[in-house]
Design brief:
42 residues, alpha+beta, two-stranded antiparallel sheet, 2 strands
Length: 42
């Protein structure tokens, strides 16, 4: 579980872009989801 802006997000929320680097892919996917408006900021 990753803590992002006070919310816990499952690491497997979005399929990893690069299986060799799951951590970076997960972080990028999480940020991308927020930017896309998938999660409310508040």
């Amino acid at each position: 579980m990753q803590e992002h802006e006070g919310k816990l997000h499952p690491v497997r929320f979005v399929p990893p872009l690069r299986p060799a680097d799951e951590t970076t892919s997960s972080e990028v996917s999480c940020v991308s989801a927020h930017e896309a408006g998938a999660f409310p900021t508040r």
